[in-house]
């Protein structure tokens, strides 16, 4: 457990954050599918991306991806088309509780051979690689975008291509768009129109070097920190205004609701306070396209003692933990009065509190990082702080660079 003490002066510093985990894992899989003709720069140093690289290089019949949810989904699809290869794909105890049935059903319907070793619908999986010739599938659209992206990525190597028909309202559209745009970027003519995705079979792509943009989800903690500070400025790289990442919506969300201004110059994103900002009486946001920043926004509201109503959060219940329950449990330690439903979180007001809160992290990297900015307002303690390695291994080192005092308790 660590204790974090507030800064005594305005923040003015510059940091470099490594590449997006989401972009990195998609490009790592694409590189493997196309026999490593892609040279990737600024790849994420997250545990998830390291596990993804290790799994892709694994030549044994057992692949363990621990807590890496994206890797589980992408690799289920990848190994299903490795004709003749038999593997067991497993993970941590929490991973064995995270559903994967929709993706497995879709792959099996296409012609894959995947079965469950323990509980129906959950890892670990037994996968026998097959040559898949079926070229279309219809799946529910209100599912994790990672299932859809996994199908898009392997569709490039199905001899008849793949048409994916999405049935119903699509959630997490930006992550699907990211996958399509990355396919386009490497020269694959993937199309996403309405509720239909078309992925052409592609034998080869040209050798090229790609720079992975830094992770916008990781940037969210600095947006929160500036929102909870005064007369402060942080520069972080490498970021672009025309980002492929859905979480780049942070620019507008934090400008309109928390008075944080974003400017870009040569790949450096500068965040600073808007001196003319007037707080809202209640913050209302639909985060259906940006669920990964819901925790940060909730914690920012608590730091400012702001009321909020956040919706579009249905996918938070099947992440590393049930993030809605976790947020309610931990933010109530600051006196927040919170109600949650299956897809929303509402902060109705605040009671007084006196104790220094000790915050649980639930083996969830984002629970640790979203709470850290609150140290600017309150002394806080965070349990199992090294859970941040999943996506941002040097997070605490960067916070020490900003001037925070962090000590073991």
TrEMBL record:
Documented EC number(s): 2.5.1.19
Keyword Amino-acid biosynthesis carried by entry: yes
Pathway: Metabolic intermediate biosynthesis; chorismate biosynthesis; chorismate from D-erythrose 4-phosphate and phosphoenolpyruvate: step 6/7
InterPro entries: Enolpyruvate_Tfrase_dom, Enolpyruvate_Tfrase_sf, EPSP_synthase, EPSP_synthase_CS, RNA3'P_cycl/enolpyr_Trfase_a/b
Domain of life (superkingdom): Bacteria
Catalytic activity: 3-phosphoshikimate + phosphoenolpyruvate = 5-O-(1-carboxyvinyl)-3-phosphoshikimate + phosphate
Record-linked PROSITE patterns: EPSP_SYNTHASE_2
Keywords recorded for this protein, A-Z: Amino-acid biosynthesis, Aromatic amino acid biosynthesis, Transferase
GO biological process, one term: aromatic amino acid family biosynthetic process
Domain Enolpyruvate transferase stretches: 60-399
One Gene Ontology molecular-function label: 3-phosphoshikimate 1-carboxyvinyltransferase activity
Signal peptide: none
Similarity remark: Belongs to the EPSP synthase family.
Protein name: 3-phosphoshikimate 1-carboxyvinyltransferase
Organism in which the protein naturally occurs: Empedobacter falsenii
């Amino acid at each position: 457990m660590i204790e974090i003490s507030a800064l005594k002066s305005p923040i003015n510093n510059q940091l470099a954050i490594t590449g997006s985990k989401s972009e990195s894992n998609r490009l790592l899989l694409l590189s493997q599918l196309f026999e490593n003709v892609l040279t990737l720069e600024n790849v994420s140093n997250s545990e998830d991306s390291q596990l993804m690289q290790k799994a892709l290089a694994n030549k044994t019949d057992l692949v363990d991806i621990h807590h890496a949810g994206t890797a589980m989904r992408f690799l289920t699809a990848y190994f299903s088309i490795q004709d003749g290869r038999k593997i067991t794909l497993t993970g941590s105890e929490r991973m064995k509780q995270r559903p994967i049935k929709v993706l497995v059903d879709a792959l099996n319907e296409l012609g894959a051979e995947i079965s469950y070793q323990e509980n129906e619908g959950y890892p670990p999986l037994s996968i026998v690689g097959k040559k898949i010739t079926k070229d279309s599938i219809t799946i529910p659209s209100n599912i994790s975008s990672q299932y859809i992206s996994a199908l898009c990525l392997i569709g490039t190597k199905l001899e008849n291509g793949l048409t994916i028909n999405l049935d119903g309202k699509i959630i997490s559209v930006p992550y699907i768009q990211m996958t399509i745009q990355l396919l386009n970027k490497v020269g694959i003519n993937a199309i996403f129109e309405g509720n239909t995705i078309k992925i052409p079979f592609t034998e080869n792509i040209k050798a090229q070097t790609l720079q992975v943009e830094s992770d916008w989800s990781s940037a969210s903690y600095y947006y929160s920190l500036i929102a909870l500070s005064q007369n402060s400025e942080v520069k972080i790289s490498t970021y672009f205004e025309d980002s492929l990442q859905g979480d780049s919506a942070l620019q507008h969300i934090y400008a309109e609701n928390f008075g944080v201004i974003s400017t870009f110059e040569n790949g450096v994103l500068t965040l600073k306070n808007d001196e003319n900002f007037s707080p809202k009486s209640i913050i209302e946001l639909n985060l259906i396209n940006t669920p990964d920043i819901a925790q940060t926004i909730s914690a920012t509201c608590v730091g400012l003692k702001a009321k909020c109503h956040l919706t579009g959060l249905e996918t938070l219940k099947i992440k590393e933990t049930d993030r809605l329950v976790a947020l309610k449990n931990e933010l109530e330690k600051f006196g927040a009065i919170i109600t949650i439903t299956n897809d929303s979180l509402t902060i109705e007001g605040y009671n007084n509190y006196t104790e220094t809160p000790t915050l649980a992290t639930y083996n969830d990297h984002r629970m640790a990082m979203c709470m850290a900015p609150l140290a600017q307002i309150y002394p806080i303690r965070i349990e199992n702080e090294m859970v941040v390695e999943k996506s941002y291994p040097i997070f605490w080192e960067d916070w020490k660079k900003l001037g925070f005092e962090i000590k073991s308790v």
